[in-house]
Amino acid sequence: MLQRNFDQAYPASDPVPTSVEGWKAPTVDLREMARILRRRWRVALAPAAALAGVALVYLMMATTLYTAVSTVLVDPRRATMIETNQTTPTNIGTDDATIESQSLLIQSVATAQRVVDKLKLTQDPEFMPKPGLLDPIKNLFKSLFKGPQQSGGLSPEEIARANAVDMLQQRMKVVRQGTTFLVDIAVSSESPTKAATIANAVASAYFDEQVRAKYDSTKIAAKWLGGQIDDLKNRVVVSEKAVADYRAANNLSVAQGVTVNDQQITDLNNKLIAARVQTAESRAKYDQVQQLSKSGADAGGLNAAVSSDMVSKLRAQYADIAKNDADLTSKYGPRHPLVANTRAQLKDTQKLINEELRRIVESTKHDYEVSKSREASLQDSFDKLQGVSTTSSQALVRLHELQREAEANRTLYESYLARSKETTAQESLELPDSRIVSNATVPLFPSAPKSKLILGLAILLGLGAGTVLAFLTDYLDGKIKTLEQAESITGVPALAALPAIGARELASRAKRGRKDLENYDPRTMRLLPASLQPPLMRYAIEEPGTFFAEAIRAVRLSIQRARKVAPVKTVLVTSGLESEGKTTFAGNLALSLATLGIKTLLIDADLRNPGMTRALCPNADAGLFQVATGEVPLEHALLFDRSSGLSILPSPAMKDVDVITELMFSEQMVEILDRLKSHYELIIIDSPPLIPLVDGRALAELADRILLAMAWDQTPREVVQHTMELLGPVHDRLLGTVLTQVDLSKIRFYDYYRSSAYLKPYGVPATAGAAR
Q1: SS3 assignment, position 134
Q2: Domain map of the chain by residue range?
Q3: 3-class SS of residue 89
Q4: pTM here?
Q5: Residue 740: closest CA among 578, 615, 607
Q6: Closest Cα to residue 604, out of 630, 585, 620, 623?
Q7: Rounded to whole angstroms, how far apart are CA atoms 490 and 581?
Q8: CA 282 to CA 589: how far, in whole Å?
Q9: DSSP three-state, residue 528
């Protein structure tokens, strides 16, 4: 049962509190999300089912493809068969851009064309364009906008080849394995054998394309080198001839890598240095002689005299004679003839020594003069050669410039000549930079379409979209679902919720009145017997153990509490719109009150659409309008239900509706209600809906308390808000709201703790059938 159990009801004049101390911002409630998905499971599963169906249709219609993979190693560092002494690398770089470039080369049009031509794919139906449903429309637009020259002047064979190349590129996928040099060539085809053949053919075509590109590059390089060599050869000849002519014109002969003039200067400079040394020695000797002459010293101390053999011999002879003279003098005396003869020999020897010394002195002077003269002569020759060298040095600078230019031309020519020979030798020996790691094998299983993946993704996407759609649908659903929603919108207590009774249960109860129907006389009985009345109108008292009866008792308890606080005689049961269950609710509430012994009157005040009267007393000929206008006495219009003690004031259908509204605002209505209050303890008024008709608003002004019925999952929030605006003048009389036609199997996904699941442990059945 769904109901409000108040320990302390809110006063009618006080609004429901909307804020609480310590209020916290709402957070994500996983249980509420689960309840949303549970109650919106159809919405959540619908996209998944739809996408799964679309995926199945696609899988049944899609073409089955097999994929074969051939792996190649792209190695730019692979050396050529001819080893050269060059330090400049001849292969391309080894960075990621190089590998990506080779991957694009494998997928290039040139490679695809080789495969198409080799395998004759233009004759394969698989690689021919298949007509589509929109092809006639496309061709029409092409003819309108492009004119008759659609093919660009291509022949049918060329068009077929282009289509085959395009199809092959679509079926081919080249992927690098991580950051390695390995590249996978994957080709898809309807035939597994054909897929492997094409994959291997693509790898072979890629190698052929590499060799052809290298051969073309080498050929172009050789041709270019040949032209450069001829030009460089001419430049070398011209530059060397310029060097020779310039050397001859400026007398710049070279011997052993040096010009003759420079060699002469070098030799003469060496001689001049030696002459200066000799002159210095001669001058030193001469100065020594001059000093000896000036001082009168013996010239025998000269180095030349000391080193002279003649002087040495004469001095030795003089020493011998002097010794002999001393011996003779001591033996014979100084006057002996032998002594005189010996002394004469000493004088002669001394004379010879002096003459030799004079000659040495004269020779020293002569040597000094000769050395000085020779030095002067060499200096004069050196000065002349230096003058000539200064003139030729300027010419030599230009000669060196010409020599450097000639040497550069010669070096460049030799380099180009060597490169040309190497290029020519490599023209027929080029190898690809790649090699096959593994050939493609025939695949055993199809690669497309991926049934499990597609179906799984479709279901996952569908579930994701369905989940979002379920949350969005629940968020945008503006209909009243819970008692909390009713309270938050109206600002008055939500008293209870009346569960909907199944049609099967109502039909089984209606069968019980077949026997009574035979004894029923519509001419004499204005009130239908209980067995002939609609089962739902008496459900609360006939099935007291149900949630429905429990909800009615909860509302009855609220009325009893209100009567203890203030005098309450009239209770208006109304709703915002038609078909919200207010008539069923009013009838069961009145019966429940009557069973307690409370003298209760049920008034059908809906004069335009008297549903209560049609259900309980369709043959009534007088009612509220006739009593209020004085046409019929009250006693004649009242009906009495003996089984419950409930009195009923019906409202027979009226053709003239112009005076109905005026009746609700008239004094007659006030008088009849005052009169009824004096006879009954409690009056339940079944009111017309408030929004389409003004009758209910007028009756609300006359009622002591008002009960507002709202159909569960039918009444929008905007309707409830508008209804509360209409009841604004009598807001203090609102006793509370009641949810009607509640589906207990669904409401537990909105508010578990007020649903049937909360009362199941107590054995309270949802329906009378369950109770039995």
Answers
A1: coil
A2: 30-62+450-477, 66-80+90-211+434-438, 258-426, 483-765
A3: coil
A4: 0.56
A5: 578
A6: 623
A7: 18
A8: 162
A9: coil
Tell me 318's DSSP state: H
Q: How far is it, in rounded angstroms, from Cα 183 to Cα 691?
A: 76
Beta bridge partners of 733: none
Q: Do 153 and 171 form a contact (C-beta atoms < 8 A)?
A: no
The C-alpha R_g of the chain, in whole angstroms, comes to 68
Give percent of the chain with pLDDT exceeding 70. Answer: 77
- Picking from 626, 647, 625, the residue whose alpha carbon sits closest to that of residue 638 is 647
The C-alpha angle 761, 500, 495, rounded to 5 degrees, equals: 75
- Structural contact between residues 280 and 272, judged by C-beta atoms closer than 8 angstroms: no
Find how far residue 578's CA is from the centre of its chain. Answer: 55
CA dist., res. 233 & res. 253, Å (int): 26
Given a contact cutoff of 8 angstroms between Cβ atoms, the answer to whether 189 and 80 are in contact is no
SS3 151: coil
| Alpha-carbon distance values, 562 to 59, 159, 497 (Å) | 68, 93, 19
> How far is the C-alpha of 683 from the C-alpha of 705, rounded, in Å?
10
Place of tokens 């600002």: 491
CA distance 479 to 498: 16
Give 764's pLDDT tier (boundaries 50, 70, 90): very low
Instruction: Report the alpha-carbon distance of residue 574 to residue 578 in Å, rounded.
Output: 10
Q: Do the beta carbons of residue 705 and residue 733 sit within 8 Å?
A: yes
The Cα-based distances of 362 to 285, 306, 313, 324, 756 in angstroms read 11, 16, 20, 33, 159
Type of residue found at 316: A
Any residues with CB less than 8 A from the CB of 338 and at least 6 apart, and which?
328, 332
Please report the pLDDT score of residue 295 as a whole number. 57
Q: Does domain 483-765 have CATH number 2.40.128.110?
A: no
CA atoms within 13 A on the CB side of 447: 18
Q: Tens of pLDDT along 382-432?
A: 777 666 555 566 666 777 777 788 788 788 878 877 777 776 665 555 567
